Amino acid sequence: MELNTLSYIIGGLALLIGIVAGKFIFAKDTKRKLDEAEHQAKKTLSDAQTNAENLKKEKLLEAKEKFVQLKAEHDKEVMERNRKINEGESRIRQKEQSVNQKIDQLEKQVKENDAIKDNLNRQIEVVNMKRTELEKHQEEHIRRLEKIAGLTAEEAKSQLVESLKHEAHTQALAMQQEIIDDVKQKANKEARKIIIQSIQRTAAEQAIENSITVFNLESDEIKGQIIGREGRNIRAIEAATGVDLIVDDTPEAIILSSFDPLRREIARLSLQRLVADGRIHPARIEEVVEKTRRQIEEQVMEIGERTVIELGIHGLHKELVRIVGKMRFRSSYGQNLLMHSREVANLCGIMAAELGLNPKLAKRAGLLHDIGKVPDEETELSHALLGAKLAEKYGENPAVVNAIGAHHDEMEMQYVISPIVQACDAISGARPGARREIMQQYLQRIKELENLALGYQGVEKAYAIQAGRELRVIVEAEKVSDADSDKLSFEIAQKIQTEMTYPGQIKVTVIREKRAVNVAR
After folding, report:
1. Is there a contact between 304 and 324 (Cβ–Cβ < 8 Å)?
2. DSSP secondary structure string for all residues of 151-186
3. N or C: which terminal CB in the chain sees fewer CB atoms within 10 Å?
């Protein structure tokens, strides 16, 4: 028992001694590692301090170099500014010297002018004295003449003025008529030459457009599909296109009626697509019409671009190109507006070249002169003024703007090409077959022409002949003399020119006949 206890004690002591020995060894190893770590930290700190010192020195050197560079640039700028200031001061001194010289010269001139002024004042006094003496002599002379003639000066003056006025009026009328005849003869000869050459070099189509379009069908059965149940399809087409569809007994045809050719074209193409597709109902109609409208807009732009390219016009604004394309679907008195504008452009270019002017500018003005007839929005302005406003808005040449606005005399002509555009517009509109005139308007114009002549004193009858191109006026021989006939013809022509609108020109012929009748018995 005691031996076992002793063995346990010895074993415990051995175990305790082992644990203490292990801890001692571990503590010794830990101390060694701590010493190594402390040595490594001191070394790292020393290296960091060294690197920091080196970096500090480098940055100080860079800062010094930068400072020296900036100081050099600053000194250079200061020197440059000082040089400019010195130059400015030199120029100012030179100007000051020049101004002082001019002031000296002006002072000398003022002194000279004062001397001249004194001399003139003395001469004026002498002249006034002589004028007073002459007035006294003239009054005395007039009193003697009045006493001899038995008339006062005012009465004699009025009689002389009346006689001279009548004589001068007669001579002026005769001279005026001679000058007008001579100028007309020369101007007409030269104008005919230029106009004939221009027209001969321009080949224009005669295009007459109506307010209806006939849409042909393969069979009358398609009419029922176009009308639809209770007319819903035809109502949808009319609402989408703004065109009236007339479905009557005309075999295999539907009439599209509208004063807007662009709408009629959209309706025609839409119907063509709907009939070819076979699906005709309100939703499909709206879709096809919208698609056709976009296609027409692209076509309008293409027509405008092709037109300006063919005419050799460059730099035209895209909006003006689009307006030019829209003119293809407009007409004026039955004449296609684009064909008319192209014809006017060609005539303007040829006529400007004949007169030695800029043909490209004239051609540009001729093409754009009627753009006011195709506005995107309705306006109260006339087409000439609206066209000028659009051209100015899109940066056109002032000469082109003035030519557009003045081609119907609604603006004052300020450039040479303005009357050329006006003349070429009249030529294009007045040529045979170019336009058609409504019968009521034609009769009204003829009646106004005759009534205008009948309003003059001494006119017995007036007849408008040759479709209103000539006016023959018959006067009473007892009331109108031969000299008065010339005056009457001139006045009627001037009044027609200022008060009436007409194509081409109107010839006024005054006829005076004196008949002496006696009966022998």
Report:
1. yes
2. S-HHHHHHHHHHHHHHHHHHHHHHHHHHHHHHHHHH
3. C
The model's pTM: 0.45
Report the distance separating Cα 343 and Cα 427, nearest Å. 9
- Give the tokens for residue 96: 């000051």
Burial (CB count <10 Å: 0-12, 13-18, 19+), residue 490: middle
The identity of residue 345, as a single letter, is A
**Per DSSP, what are the bridge partners of residue 508?**
471
Do residues 362 and 421 touch, judged by C-beta distance below 8 A?
yes
Q: How many other CB atoms are found less than 10 A from the CB of residue 401?
A: 24
Which two tokens mark 315?
A: 């730099």
Residue 6: strand, helix, or coil: helix
For 113-125, the DSSP string reads HHHHHHHHHHHHH
Instruction: Please give the residue that has the higher pLDDT: either 363 or 520.
Output: 363
pLDDT digits 0-9 by tens, 300-321 = 888 889 988 888 888 888 888 8
Only one residue has tokens 């409208």, namely 293
Q: What's the rounded Cα separation, in Å, for the pair 447 and 214?
A: 36
Sign, CA torsion 90/95/96/102 = positive
